[in-house]
Each structure stands twice: as C-alpha cells, then as structure tokens.
Amino acid sequence: MKKILILASNPRKDLNLEREIRDLKKVIYRQAKESRFQVEIELAVRPEDLQELFLEHEPLIVHYSGHGTGEEGLVLENDTGREQLISTQTLSDILALFKEQVQCVLLNACYSEVQAEAIIEHINYVIGMNQPIQDT
Asked: Checking DSSP bridges between strand 74-77 and strand 67-68, what pairing results, if any?
C-alpha cells in the first residue's frame, strides 16, 4: 500500500495543525478506495527523528506542516518542545538517502522554496512556498 507520511511540528503553538491534518485525512480517505493510500502522522517531529521515520514508514509521499524560515531551514522541535532548525543541507542529505523510495515532498511552510530547490536534486516532485502562508 502507498504511504503518505505527514510530519508536523509546531513548537511555537501558533498553528492549527490538528485541523490541517484532519482536512488532509478527509481528502485522502475519500480517494482511498481508488488510490489505496495509507496515512501515517507523526507530531512534534525532531530533526533526529526523520531518518528513523522514513525507515519505519517507507513513505511514497512526505508532507511537512509547520514553520519555515527560508535560508535558515525548517522549524522542528527539540527534546523540550522548543524550536530546533533543520538546515536545508541536512534535510536534503536525509532525503537523498531515500530517493529510491520517496517520490514527492510537500513543504507546507512559509519560505520553504529554498528547501524545495535543494530537495529537487534528489526527489522528482517537490513543492515549497516562496512567501508566507496563512494558517487559515
């Protein structure tokens, strides 16, 4: 079965990720009979979790929901729930390890175009944002 791995991180506690994940699941499950997608959700993701999560879930599609900072990277969490950035290079290097498995990455985070441009060197389909996006 094809897997979609939803990675969410919100150490700032200012995003309504629960609503976003609910809406994503609804759309995916509506199509599930035809597409046979299985959704895996991981919350409060830390940089050190990524490689293990990709190994565990073997996703075809990866959807990240959280904050982006442009050049500085994506905002994940540390062990105490505070912000910890994952650099563009580190994220790209991790995804390079799974280029035979992951076919699509969606970065639902402000200014994540920088990361998308780095990831596209390894993954065929990548979507990033070139501006701020509203939680609504």
From this structure: antiparallel
Q: What is the pLDDT of residues 24-50, one digit of tens each?
A: 888 777 765 666 788 899 999 999 999
Question: In angstroms, rounded to a whole number, what is the distance separating the alpha carbons of residues 18 and 52?
Answer: 23
Q: Find all residues with CB under 8 Å of 57, minimum gap 6, and list them.
A: 3, 5, 40
Instruction: Give residue-wise pLDDT tens across range 65-110.
Output: 999 999 999 999 999 999 999 999 999 999 999 999 999 999 999 9
Distance CA 2, CA 18 (A): 23
- On whether the CB atoms of residues 47 and 94 are closer than 8 A, the answer is no
Closest CA to 17 of 54, 65, 88, 82: 65
Pull the structure tokens for residue 92.
């790209």
Phi-psi region of 73 (alpha: psi -120 to 50; beta: other; left: phi over 0): left
Cβ neighbours around 106 below 10 Å, total: 20
Query: Which own/partner pairs from 77-81 qualify as long-range (CB within 8 Å, at least 24 positions apart)?
Result: 77/9, 77/11, 77/44, 77/45, 77/46, 78/11, 78/46, 79/46, 81/11, 81/44
